[in-house]
Amino acid sequence: MDNIRLGIFPNMSIVKVRIHFEAILALCRKYKITVVLPDKLAEMYSLEPFAGRNSQLTAAVSLGGDGTFLRMARDMVKINVPVFGVNFGHLGFLAEIEYDTMEQAFQLLTDGRYSIEKRCLLQAQTFAEGRKTPQNELAINEFVAARSNLSTTNHMELYINGKPSARYAADGLIVATATGSTAYSLSAGGPLVQPGMDVMVITPICAHSLATRPLVIPATEEVEIRLLPRNTSPMALSADGIPVCEIGQKDVVRISKNRQFLRLLRLTDKSYYETWQEKLIRDL
């Protein structure tokens, strides 16, 4: 593939990233890859600064953990650029390339030997009392409605396609994509879901009933979260760990599938089942 323009988005707070960063730039020169960097790094290394859609990127790569990947990917979704990640963090479900296989990955990239997977995204509209238009937000992994007051239990009602479907007394509620099933939802007791599936995973956080279990529903459904009258404190809504807004007593959070997709560039033929085995059971 000719004239590859690669956006590189490193987490320079990670020691290993700082140690290997110049070697990664050298790899790009070896494979004649044009590098685009965030402003400050571009100035430091006399390279082209990232300018959104005008950068005309072939692909974008994060150097860090899954958090670094998510921050980059949220920006790349807006300009339809395929993404991949090099893992310098811990588990690395999303950043699936390891540093020691990076040269092989660059060789595959320049040869055009890769696949692009489309991953489902979620959108949330928050309808607040006194606000004329809803607040809109996008999530790759999950939306989380959680308590903002640590001393209280949240009482919520879940609607699916406009119909009351469940009530929860819990610390919060996670609505995740299949991609996000390996993140917060998994820690809260949710199921592992093959990431290509078009579903939502609804997982309560520390539910106060043993009968409360996660739900897996088609992503074509529309979910609403409302606070019950006995809920005396507001809740906080976040998207992929980023705070979005406060949820008040009369507010409604409506979550549905977004029309856009995350385009995940895959440079390995490793199956998800191998990855799950490797990441989750490696210390046993």
Automatic annotation (TrEMBL):
EC number, as in UniProt: 2.7.1.23
Active site per database record: 66
Gene (UniProt): nadK
GO cellular component term, pick one: cytoplasm
Protein's UniProt name: NAD kinase
Function of the molecule: Involved in the regulation of the intracellular balance of NAD and NADP, and is a key enzyme in the biosynthesis of NADP. Catalyzes specifically the phosphorylation on 2'-hydroxyl of the adenosine moiety of NAD to yield NADP.
Gene3D superfamilies: Probable inorganic polyphosphate/atp-NAD kinase, domain 1, Probable inorganic polyphosphate/atp-NAD kinase, domain 2
Sites where the protein binds NAD(+): 66-67, 71, 141-142, 171, 182-187
Entry keyword Zinc: no
Database matches in HAMAP family: NAD_kinase
Parts forming coiled coils: none
InterPro entries linked: ATP-NAD_kinase_N (IPR017438), ATP-NAD_kinase_PpnK-typ_C (IPR017437), NAD/diacylglycerol_kinase_sf (IPR016064), NADK (IPR002504)
Family, similarity comment: Belongs to the NAD kinase family.
GO molecular function: ATP binding; metal ion binding; NAD binding; NAD+ kinase activity
Keyword Metal-binding: no
